[in-house]
């Protein structure tokens, strides 16, 4: 006699001792990357900014760290944190579907942001504003294929992030809207090519807020995504 295997809230087979929903367990694991990616990115960028010769946290965009000796560290940071964000975005989609909430497609915007970060690592920004040492003191004298690819990847990724801040249904929608507006203004500032401290520092603040929004959103969905199947 064949017995059917019990399933959890999402309809997927139960694993372990029969009380854990496999689909939900995977979803929660993916959401966990949204809590890790931000701190890793920020710590890596700040440490590099403090130890790299000629880099000024108040004048230079973090993307410039991918240039010169040691640039591989920032390239790796972009790619690894981007892949983590992609995983978190997939977790957001799965969680929103499980919870049957509005706009589950909005999680794909987080995925888009992650893809943009990966692209920003694959394509290296052109040297400018005196970094690395010997680079033009102003904007780049010539835009290379890598520099253009970096601008396009970062721009599309940031656009996905801004829209996601408004579209992803989270526990604190006001926070998402604030972060979306702040990031849009800050990105417009750095996109202008300005190296003024208020612009550069403003963008650093916006980046930290964006990672905080992703962490808060993933933590909220992590807590709301059911893992245990009620007894009986």
From TrEMBL:
<feature type="transmembrane region" description="Helical">
    <location>
        <begin position="105"/>
        <end position="125"/>
    </location>
</feature>
<feature type="transmembrane region" description="Helical">
    <location>
        <begin position="174"/>
        <end position="195"/>
    </location>
</feature>
<keyword id="KW-0812">Transmembrane</keyword>
<feature type="transmembrane region" description="Helical">
    <location>
        <begin position="201"/>
        <end position="222"/>
    </location>
</feature>
<dbReference type="InterPro" id="IPR009339">
    <property type="entry name" value="DUF998"/>
</dbReference>
<keyword id="KW-0472">Membrane</keyword>
<feature type="transmembrane region" description="Helical">
    <location>
        <begin position="145"/>
        <end position="167"/>
    </location>
</feature>
<feature type="transmembrane region" description="Helical">
    <location>
        <begin position="30"/>
        <end position="51"/>
    </location>
</feature>
<protein>
    <recommendedName>
        <fullName>DUF998 domain-containing protein</fullName>
    </recommendedName>
</protein>
<feature type="transmembrane region" description="Helical">
    <location>
        <begin position="71"/>
        <end position="93"/>
    </location>
</feature>
<dbReference type="Pfam" id="PF06197">
    <property type="entry name" value="DUF998"/>
</dbReference>
<keyword id="KW-1133">Transmembrane helix</keyword>
């Amino acid at each position: 006699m064949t017995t059917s295997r019990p399933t959890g809230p999402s309809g997927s087979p139960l694993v372990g001792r029969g009380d854990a929903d496999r689909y939900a367990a995977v979803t929660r694991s993916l959401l966990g990357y949204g809590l890790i990616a931000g701190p890793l990115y920020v710590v890596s960028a700040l440490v590099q900014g403090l130890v790299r010769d000629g880099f000024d946290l108040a004048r230079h965009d973090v993307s410039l760290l991918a240039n010169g000796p040691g640039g591989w560290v920032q390239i790796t940071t972009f790619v690894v944190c981007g892949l983590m964000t992609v995983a978190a975005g997939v977790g957001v989609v799965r969680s929103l579907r499980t919870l049957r909430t509005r706009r589950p497609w909005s999680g794909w915007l987080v995925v888009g942001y992650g893809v943009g970060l990966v692209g920003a690592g694959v394509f290296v920004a052109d040297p400018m504003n005196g970094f690395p040492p010997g680079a033009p003191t102003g904007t780049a004298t010539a835009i290379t294929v890598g520099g253009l690819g970096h601008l396009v990847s970062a721009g599309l990724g940031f656009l996905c992030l801004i829209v996601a801040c408004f579209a992803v249904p989270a526990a604190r929608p006001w926070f998402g809207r604030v972060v979306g507006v702040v990031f849009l203004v800050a990105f417009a500032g750095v996109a202008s090519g300005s190296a003024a401290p208020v612009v550069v520092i403003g963008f650093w603040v916006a980046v930290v807020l964006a990672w905080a929004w992703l962490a808060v959103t993933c933590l909220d969905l992590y807590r709301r995504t059911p893992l245990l199947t009620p007894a009986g």
